[in-house]
Amino acid sequence: MLFLCTGNSSRSILAEALLNHWGAGKFRAFSAGSFPAGVVNPRAVELLAQLKIPAPGARSKSWKEFAAPGGVEFDFIITVCDNAAGEVCPIWPGQPVTAHWGVEDPAAAGGSDAEKMLAFRNAFRALEHRIRIFVSLPFESLDRIHLRRRLDEIGQLHPATGDAPAGS
After folding, report:
1. Which among 81, 126, 147, 157 is annotated as catalytic?
2. Phi/psi of residue 2, each to 5°?
3. Using CB atoms within 10 A as the burial measure, which of 5, 107, 112, 113 is most buried?
4. What is the pTM of this model?
């Protein structure tokens, strides 16, 4: 799975680490950005370390690394920020299932250091909830259409509460 965001410094890095952790070898996650920041946000690194979620080799990189011929062929591509959702993405080999799991950018949070770290914890919690649901899906009984529908439903979960949107 490839998690995409604009800067590939916070949300997509958290998602990559979470899926590699909760996927327990069943899944392999990567992350990238359309306009990578070039550095991983230190608060993302700090939070992952505090929660003992490994993120070896985490780095901010361009999606061009993965769009090149002969690159990794993904089964799933998930955008995690609103900017990436509206951007024109490369054509990915293998026609991966795509979805959008928008999460508010914790790096944009203002306030005290504690308030900024709380924004990272909230983003982490939203992504972790979605990823834990994803890894528990009955993949062997879902065809491509139903799998896409389930990924879209996961993306509609309220980031703060994990609840389905009103009217669902």
Report:
1. 81
2. -115, 125
3. 5
4. 0.90
Whether 81 and 105 have beta carbons less than 8 Å apart is answered as yes
Q: Give the type of residue at 53.
A: I
**51/58 Cα distance (integer angstroms):** 16
Q: Which residue type sits at 4?
A: L
Instruction: Please state the length of the chain.
Output: 168
pLDDT in tens, 129-151: 999 999 999 999 999 999 999 99
Handedness of CA 72, 54, 142, 81 (dihedral sign): negative
The residues that bridge with 62 in the sheet, in sequence order, are: 33
- CATH top class, domain 2-156: alpha beta
Active-site residue flag, 89:
yes
Q: Any catalytic annotation for residue 115?
A: no
Task: Decide if 81 is catalytic.
Answer: yes
